[in-house]
Amino acid sequence: MSRVTCPVLSSRVMSAEEAVAFIRPGDNVGMSGFTGAGYPKAVPSALAARAQAAHAAGEDFRIGLWTGASTAPQADGVLAEAHAISTRLPYNSDPSLRQQINAGEVDYVDAHLSHSAQQMWFGFYGPLDVAVIEVTAVLPEGLLVPGSSVGNNKTWLDQADKVILEVNRWQPREFEGFHDIYRGTALPPHRRPLVLTEPMQRIGEPYLYVDPAKVVAVIETDEPDVGAAFSAPDEVSRAIARHALDFLRGEVGAGRMPPELLPLQSGVGNVANAVLQGLDESEFTSLVAYTEVLQDGMLNLLDSGTMRAASTASFGLSREGMTRFRENINGYKGRILLRSEEISNHPEIVRRLGIIAMNGMIEADIYGNVNSTHVMGSAVMNGIGGSGDFARNAYLNFFLTPSTAKNGAISAIVPMVSHVDHTEHDVHVIVTEQGLADLRGLSPRARAERIIDNCAHPDFRPQLRDYLERALAARPTARHTPHLLDEALSWHQRYLDTGRM
């Protein structure tokens, strides 16, 4: 049975191949999707085929692609392989697209997730020509039931000149009521405070709106989200988790947070899932999350009762996790709330709620600057995502990583990071399997000593200590944050030259 029950919009049902005729070369296209959830399933492939045909005829056909965050091979991947993308924002994790970005073929705008919708609205990115949004259902009066992610969908629907809807029957119809779509945003100088004081407080409505006059096509699909791939925590990840949990116990013991902790935010990945698993096996109970992605580890916490509720912008579940959620969806209603990313990542709310933020990194330097996006300074990995939104504004933030990479050839602790995403002023705690460095209230030199002693791998500690000592001696009047400028990035250059730092 069709889920398009609005008479006006049901008259615009067509195939994806027909729908992509409304997208022109050079258009900016805003698609739904966030960490492999809620992305359009039919339009990207049809658009890729159109681009390939144009290229075969000697014509250029590329679009600017804007989403909530990363999508999936069926969206980012097929469009990248067709060389159909000219500009991408605000986040990407597709290998083919990453290769094109690093080859200079695609312009990548690596924006904070909380900024992307508002900066588009400000006009910083140019006009949004077409929005392609997946939803669960179209109700008789034209209201849209969102699906497994919200991302920037509200803004794309509001601001796009034309709208293409994909109505996916795979998305559970029971999703109605899971969402809280806030519509009170405004442009300066007309903004008002966001009155959200509890993680599960509703400040919006369960539906997305669209002007029916802008909807040029409706496509009906029945295809699953691709799902994320996670491996079981290894000993390194478990060690990182143990250090983080012991630290939280100390914070509770010191009276700096309640026994049920403060609201949790967790980035995506195996290390983050290991920390969540550690929480599930710990004495902590009645936890709550205010995060941007709900992954398997958080679903496990909800299932066990360790976590009572979670606010998020998207799911980032494995196939097993998605199956479990779908089979028990009614039991999660009222315990999981999905919001737009401009609300899930909003600095005002993050600071007010006192979030504990846990995110991964590529490397940190001895003074606490963190690189979470670039390999050897120039090649982007995925993007900053929401880590900056949370790190700068959290009550407490952790940056987590194994102390080495590439079988010990690379140290995650270096004299100076090759790219800065989070400055030393924003970073509270660094954790590796070697230990934990609490940097709060420390001067740069004190931070350096703690990071080297607690977080660096033993194979690299002597070189780091030697660097710090020689930097201190080299310039007696510049000892606040001492560096040897001719050596600060030599570790990265040595890796590029020899394959080992």
Characterization of the model:
This protein is an alpha/beta fold and 501 residues long. The protein contains 18 helices and 27 strands. α14 crosses α15 (387-393). The longest helix is centred in the middle third of the chain and has 19 residues, at 235-253.
Can you give me a brief rundown of this structure?
The protein has 501 residues and is α/β, with parallel strands linked by helices. Helices cover 32% and strands 19% of the residues.
List the main descriptive attributes of the protein structure presented here:
501 residues, alpha/beta, seven-stranded parallel β-sheet, 18 helices
**Structural class given helices, strands, pairing?**
alpha/beta
What is the tally of beta strands?
A: 27
Termini Cα gap: 60 Å
Enumerate the spans where pLDDT stays under 50 for 5 or more consecutive residues.
Answer: none
Q: What is the percent of helical residues?
A: 25-40%
Q: Give the percentage of residues in beta strands.
A: 15-25%
Averaged pLDDT = 96
Radius of gyration: 23 Å
Main sheet specs: 7 strands, parallel
How would the blueprint of this fold be written?
Blueprint: H1 7-10, H2 16-19, E1 28-31, H3 43-56, E2 63-66, H4 73-81, E3 85-89, H5 95-102, E4 107-108, H6 113-122, E5 130-135, E6 137-138, E7 144-145, H7 153-159, E8 162-168, E9 179-180, E10 215-221, H8 235-253, E11 264-266, H9 270-280, E12 287-290, E13 293-295, H10 296-304, E14 307-312, E15 314-316, H11 319-327, H12 329-332, E16 336-339, H13 341-344, H14 347-353, E17 356-360, E18 363-365, E19 370-371, E20 374-375, E21 379-380, H15 387-393, E22 396-400, E23 404-405, E24 410-411, E25 413-414, E26 429-432, E27 435-438, H16 444-454, H17 461-474, H18 490-498
Parallel strand pairs: 1-2, 1-5, 2-3, 3-4, 5-8, 8-10, 9-16, 11-17, 12-14, 13-15, 14-16, 17-22, 18-25, 22-26
Antiparallel strand pairs: 6-7, 18-19, 20-21, 23-24, 26-27
Helix pairs in contact: 3-4, 4-5, 8-9, 9-10, 14-15, 16-17
